[in-house]
């Protein structure tokens, strides 16, 4: 790969960074599709910016380096200059990567870079316009359980009669299944319609193949076809597990169900042996989740067998009530969106609490290190003051979350009292109010804004 080198050791990398030249690091994993996509863009940027050094770090194989740069999920990028790390980027964000590289390394053929980013970021493909990251996410969801239902609501609280009907049928037939509430994620909701070429919900999948919606499931139940399909699957379970013997399968199932929340990890909660395992443990502790763990380094049969059994190629793996949730990147994203807390409450792991407006506001202002409450969105501001703050943050290269106060009158009025600040926009850093438009612009013009938002 032209212009890109692989890091062999922390000592080597430390010497490169100390050299003072602009350095861009890509932390990746071979099992991560988003890493592969971003790796192509990374390679092209290396060609477009020869004045910078581009290095790849295989995150799980270089845990010391991953820990040093606080890598919790891949893909992850670090930007170094003059011997220091001055910026980071988490996730598959092609345009964000191009912007940060340009800021680090100086002028380049910007139009060329933009073309490369648009071409490689997979904005269109054979799946009717789905980008590759979303397509990969949908496939992982669909294959996360042999029987998987995309529905409105949860099996315990369906939000439409058709979803309720399908869950009732599956429960009556004694079929265990995974589920996803499409009301919680509009990207999945709209994307799956394109992916499956099926315009409505619920959608039931069996071993990665779409069976259909409510009417088809009802018809299959009445004809006995649904039960026959599952029986046939159960009879071939050991074969489907790529040659795993029955004794190992039984042991894996016993381990998975040995605790309501179980983490298969490298090391122990007190002494994690990789950064990803450490991050997952930290998340569970932050959420006050009682859990047990299994050190996969202590048992090679379990370590290799579980990859096949779960169809998940890496560690850590989190299970809740016997169902695979995912690795550290998925759990981190679920924590950020609040989905993890909701799932734990739904499964009865933690006690559900009635969220007050104050609780909601505290969660919102802390949902991103830099959080902007504004009128409209960053791409379509609905007042001049909000637009000016967005432009100031972007000029400083500051990543930020946002909330459109026009979309929620309760938040709009409540935040005024919560912050004791009567107007919008309002900018927060680590849960603390910075101020409105005038203060932000004054800090921007005085060169204080980036420094304040990076402390």
UniProtKB/TrEMBL annotation:
It comes from the Eukaryota. GO terms for cellular component: cytosol; nucleus. GO terms for biological process: intracellular iron ion homeostasis. PROSITE patterns: GLUTAREDOXIN_2 (PS51354), THIOREDOXIN_2 (PS51352). Keywords: Iron, Iron-sulfur, Metal-binding. Residues 1-106 form the Thioredoxin domain. One of its GO terms (molecular function) is iron-sulfur cluster binding. PANTHER family: GLUTAREDOXIN FAMILY MEMBER, GLUTAREDOXIN-3. May only reduce GSH-thiol disulfides, but not protein disulfides. Belongs to the glutaredoxin family. CGFS subfamily. This is Thioredoxin domain-containing protein. It comes from Rhynchospora tenuis.
């Amino acid at each position: 790969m032209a212009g890109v080198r692989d890091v062999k050791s922390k000592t080597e990398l430390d010497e490169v960074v100390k050299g003072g030249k602009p350095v861009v690091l890509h932390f990746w994993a071979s099992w991560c599709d988003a890493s592969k996509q971003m790796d192509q863009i990374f390679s092209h940027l290396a060609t477009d910016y020869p004045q910078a050094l581009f290095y790849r770090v295989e995150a799980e194989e270089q845990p010391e380096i991953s820990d040093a740069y606080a890598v919790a999920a891949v893909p992850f990028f670090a930007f170094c200059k003059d011997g220091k790390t001055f910026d980071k980027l988490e996730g598959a964000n092609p345009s964000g990567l191009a912007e940060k590289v340009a800021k680090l390394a100086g002028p380049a053929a910007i139009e060329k870079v933009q073309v490369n980013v648009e071409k490689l970021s997979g904005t269109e493909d054979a799946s009717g316009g789905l980008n590759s990251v979303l397509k990969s996410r949908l496939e992982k969801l669909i294959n996360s359980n042999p029987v998987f239902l995309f529905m409105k609501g949860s099996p315990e609280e369906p939000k439409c009669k058709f979803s309720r009907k399908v869950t009732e049928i599956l429960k009556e037939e004694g079929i265990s299944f995974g589920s996803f509430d499409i009301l919680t994620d509009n990207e999945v909701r709209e994307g799956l319609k394109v992916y499956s070429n099926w315009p409505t919900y619920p959608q039931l999948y069996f071993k990665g193949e779409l069976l259909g919606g409510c009417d088809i499931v009802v018809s299959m139940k009445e004809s006995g076809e649904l039960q026959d399909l599952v029986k046939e699957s159960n009879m071939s379970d050991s074969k489907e597990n790529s040659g795993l013997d029955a004794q190992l399968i039984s042991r894996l199932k016993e381990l998975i169900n040995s605790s309501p929340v179980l983490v298969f990890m490298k090391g122990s909660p007190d002494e994690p042996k990789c950064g990803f395992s450490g991050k997952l443990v930290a998340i569970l502790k932050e959420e006050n989740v009682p859990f047990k763990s299994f050190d996969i380094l202590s048992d090679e049969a379990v370590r290799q067998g579980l990859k096949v059994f779960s169809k998940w190629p890496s560690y850590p793996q989190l299970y809740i009530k016997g169902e695979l949730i995912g690795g550290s990147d998925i759990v981190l994203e679920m924590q950020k969106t609040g989905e993890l807390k909701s799932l734990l409450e739904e499964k009865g792991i933690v006690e559900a609490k009635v969220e007050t407006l104050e609780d909601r506001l505290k969660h919102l202002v802390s949902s991103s290190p830099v959080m902007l409450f504004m009128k409209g969105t960053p791409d379509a501001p609905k007042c001049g003051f909000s637009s000016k703050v967005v432009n100031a943050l972007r000029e400083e290269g500051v990543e930020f979350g946002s909330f459109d106060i026009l979309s929620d009158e309760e938040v709009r009025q409540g935040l005024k009292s919560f912050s004791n600040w009567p107007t919008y926009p309002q900018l927060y850093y680590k849960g603390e109010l910075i101020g409105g438009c005038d203060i932000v612009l004054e800090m921007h013009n005085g060169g204080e804004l980036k420094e304040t938002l990076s402390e």
